[in-house]
């Protein structure tokens, strides 16, 4: 069964007819040519496919395309603004926060969503003061909040340093 819908990806409308079983990851990569989000595990366990929907982090491999009709979607390709690279992208480069780069798009989208969550005062499992207006994003806090994004190369020290820099 197919459904007609319109996706809003990186500020651009995409009218599509999609199978109701099609994942957002497959739609982005195969239909729209946005190959930034990667197919890692295809089970929602690695975070390589992380994108933002309504500004919130989602694993695109587990999200059905029909569920995001007419909701703003941001992929790594949409993080860059009119002034150039997103601050997280610049910090990842400065802190050498990647090796092979396969997980980097998901890490960047997840970090952008995580910083927004922390900015709204959402606590994590390691937040010492859940009543604080904004959690202090120390290393433990960043690691916990980014724990859904795996890096096979082990670039975590650079990733944490880059996110810490941007959070300040």
TrEMBL record:
Name of this protein: Xanthine dehydrogenase YagT iron-sulfur-binding subunit
CDD domains the UniProt entry points to: fer2
PROSITE patterns (alphabetical): 2FE2S_FER_1, 2FE2S_FER_2
Annotated pathway: Alkaloid degradation; nicotine degradation
GO molecular function, one term: metal ion binding
2Fe-2S ferredoxin-type domain ranges (all copies): 3-79
UniProt KW keywords: 2Fe-2S, Iron, Iron-sulfur, Metal-binding, Oxidoreductase
């Amino acid at each position: 069964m197919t459904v007609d819908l319109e996706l809003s990806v990186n500020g651009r409308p995409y009218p599509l007819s999609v199978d109701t079983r099609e994942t957002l990851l497959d739609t982005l990569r195969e239909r729209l040519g946005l190959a930034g989000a990667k197919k890692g595990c295809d089970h929602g366990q690695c975070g390589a496919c992380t994108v933002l929907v309504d500004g919130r982090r989602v694993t695109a491999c587990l999200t059905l395309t029909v569920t995001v009709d007419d909701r703003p979607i941001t992929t790594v390709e949409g993080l860059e603004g009119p002034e150039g690279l997103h601050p997280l992208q610049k910090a990842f480069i400065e802190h050498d926060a990647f090796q092979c780069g396969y997980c980097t798009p998901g890490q960047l989208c997840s970090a952008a969503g995580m910083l927004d969550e922390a900015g709204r005062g959402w606590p994590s499992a390691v937040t010492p003061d859940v009543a604080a207006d904004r959690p202090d994003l120390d290393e433990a806090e960043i690691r916990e909040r980014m724990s859904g994004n795996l890096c096979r190369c082990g670039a975590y020290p650079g990733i944490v340093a880059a996110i810490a820099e941007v959070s300040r």
